[in-house]
Structure formats: C-alpha cells, structure tokens
Design goal:
Layout (H helix, E strand, L loop, with lengths): L1 H19 L10 E3 L4 E4 L5 E3 L8 E7 L4 E8 L6 H14 L3 E7 L5 E7 L4 E10 L2 E10 L5 H11 L1 E2 L18
Antiparallel strand pairs: 1-2, 2-10, 3-4, 4-5, 5-9, 6-7, 7-8, 8-9
Helix pairs in contact: 1-2
Length: 181
C-alpha cells in the first residue's frame, strides 16, 4: 500500500511541477529515453522544450507562448498498479493542491484520462495515465482556460507517445501483453 501511495504522490508532484514550471524554449522538441522505454514523445509545433527542472520523475517539459505547459513523467511502479489505480490515487492529492471538478475516465486502450480545473476555472488540466511493462507514464497539459485550443495539442502529443523496447531489443515483449501506439 505504501508503494502505491508514494507513486500517486510522485505523479501528483509531477503535475504540480508542470503547472508552475517556467519555460524558455530550446530547439529540440522530440524526447526519447531507452532506459524508461520511451521511443518517442513529441508535442505539436508551437511548443518549445523548457529547461529541465530538478524533479527526478519529470522526463520532459514543454511550454507554449499562450501559457500552456506540457509534461511527460514516468516512474517504475509495482506489478499490480494499473493506470486506473494511479489516476484514482492522484485525485485526492490533486484536489488538495487546488484542482477542482476532477473527472477520471478510461479509454479503449486501458489508458486513463483525468481532467480538472485550476485557479477557480482560469486554467484547466488534462492528463493521460499509461502503464506498460512496470512503468507508469503521465502526460500532463496545464493551460489557461481561454487557450482551449491547446487541448487539441494535448491529443496530438498523446498520439506521438511510443513506448516499448528500444530497437536493439526486437524480441522483447511488454509484460502486460499490450502495445502502445
């Protein structure tokens, strides 16, 4: 039980970091990490890679000129932790941080989406929780409410996420038997 609470705290910390990160962009936008089985993650045009804050589970952080923050975080988790469980554990922690109207829903790929409001509705949050091969991933968008069009960018970034064994391990199969886009 302690492990799963800790995992929820870490993912909540990652979203808090996303909501307060200050970004000044660089050139590279695509992110890869063989150790954490991220083959590709890339935000749409208009997003710039932000300086990497010192949060250990935050893999990549991007900012948008309209005030949006987009992050990818990951952590190794217990074998019995699902994306639904991670999202469910994050909900009360996010509410303590000021997130309101938190809604959680599962999609057809067993991924879990979380949506919430912040700052009295002045900002909104969207998250995707994915668990694959003992690693929990969270993609987070925090954006001003007037920048609703950034929600489409979140969807596009989610589509770019490719997980799995790096090309040097062609016969490795995900432990959960599934593959991510």
């Amino acid at each position: 039980m302690r492990w799963s609470i800790r995992a929820g705290l870490i993912f909540s910390f990652a979203i808090a970091a996303a909501s307060t990160a200050i970004g000044a962009g660089g050139q590279a936008r695509s992110y890869r990490n063989d150790a954490l089985r991220v083959r590709n993650f890339e935000p749409p045009p208009g997003w710039e890679l932000s300086p990497q804050p010192s949060y250990p589970r935050l893999l990549a952080s991007y900012s948008h000129r309209d005030g949006g923050k987009l992050t990818l975080s990951a952590q190794k988790i217990g074998a019995r932790i699902s994306a639904q469980k991670l999202a469910d554990q994050s909900k009360p922690l996010l509410e303590k941080q000021g997130f309101t109207a938190v809604k959680i829903s599962a999609d057809e790929d067993a991924h879990v989406r979380l949506e919430a409001n912040l700052d009295g509705g002045r900002r909104y949050a969207k998250q995707l929780y994915v668990v694959e091969s003992g690693i929990g991933y969270v993609i987070t968008l925090i954006a001003p409410s007037e920048a609703g069009r950034l929600a489409n960018d979140f969807t596009e970034a989610v589509r770019s996420l490719q997980l799995g064994a790096p090309p040097s391990e062609p016969h490795a199969a995900p432990e959960d038997g599934g593959a991510t886009r």
